[in-house]
From TrEMBL:
This is Uncharacterized protein. Keywords: Membrane, Transmembrane, Transmembrane helix. Residues 1-47 are annotated as: Disordered. Residues 1-14 have a biased composition (Low complexity). Residues 19-28 have a biased composition (Polar residues). The chain crosses the membrane at residues 63-80, 86-106, 113-133, 220-238.
């Protein structure tokens, strides 16, 4: 009787101890988290966020400015070729040059790159407009034979003297041509010319001598070089910002 009772008494406590130990082990395994697990969760969240982000925002900022500034300068030069287009071209050009100086000089602290970008962007406005006007007129414009009937000069609102030409085309229409439309004193009354008319009717007619119908490659080349200089200066300033 004593042996049986002693065996039952010693077996009960050992079973309880083993049960409690296994429960504590399971709890510790359930609540324990390794640094690798937390890192993997964070990496997954970052990956999902990067996938949902717009591709435009993932482009380096200096690349965007290096493309945007010369493009806006070109647009400003082109818009100035339209009648009353200076109301848009002047503030757009001024804002673009100021933006180039602020970004490269103020934010990136590269005064040399800022100066070069501003000068090149300003020159690009002056060269790109006439070069693109010549390209558009000779490639897209309707070509008509015309004759210069009168030449003269006029003063604009600022008091500047400018050359003018009066031209009549084969349809009998009379056109008054300014320096912006390639009348710079090189034509004489009675001289035959080629008149290029905008099919959309938005740009003023453009005239040229019959033997000068080739594109203005010099103006286009200078414009392309200024575009590259403006973009290169901003790329340099953005990569070596302080």
């Amino acid at each position: 009787m004593s042996v049986t009772g002693g065996t039952d008494g010693s077996t009960g406590p050992s079973d309880d101890a083993r049960t409690q130990g296994s429960l504590r082990t399971q709890r510790s395994q359930t609540h324990e988290r390794t640094p690798g697990d937390a890192g993997s969760d964070g990496g997954t969240t970052a990956a999902l966020a990067s996938r949902s982000r717009s591709p435009f925002l993932s482009v380096p900022q200096h690349l965007l400015w290096a493309l945007l500034i010369p493009l806006l300068s070109t647009v400003a030069g082109w818009s100035g070729q339209y009648p009353h287009g200076l109301w848009l071209a002047a503030p757009l050009a001024l804002g673009t040059v100021c933006a180039a100086g602020f970004i490269a000089g103020g934010r990136w602290h590269r005064p040399g790159a800022a100066t070069l970008a501003c000068v090149a962007a300003c020159a690009l406005v002056l060269f790109a407009g006439p070069a693109l006007y010549d390209l558009y007129a000779k490639r897209v414009g309707d070509q008509l034979d015309a004759m210069v009937t009168q030449t003269g000069q006029r003063r604009n609102a600022k008091g500047t003297t400018m050359e003018t030409c009066t031209v009549i085309d084969t349809s009998g229409a009379v056109h008054r041509i300014s320096e912006q439309q390639n009348c710079s004193g090189q034509f004489k009354p009675g001289q035959r010319v080629i008149l290029y008319k905008d099919p959309a009717g938005l740009l003023d007619p453009y005239i040229e001598e019959p033997d000068q119908q080739a594109l203005d490659t010099t103006g286009l080349g200078i414009s392309a070089a200024l575009f590259a200089v403006t973009s290169g200066a901003l790329l340099y300033g953005g990569q070596r910002r302080r």
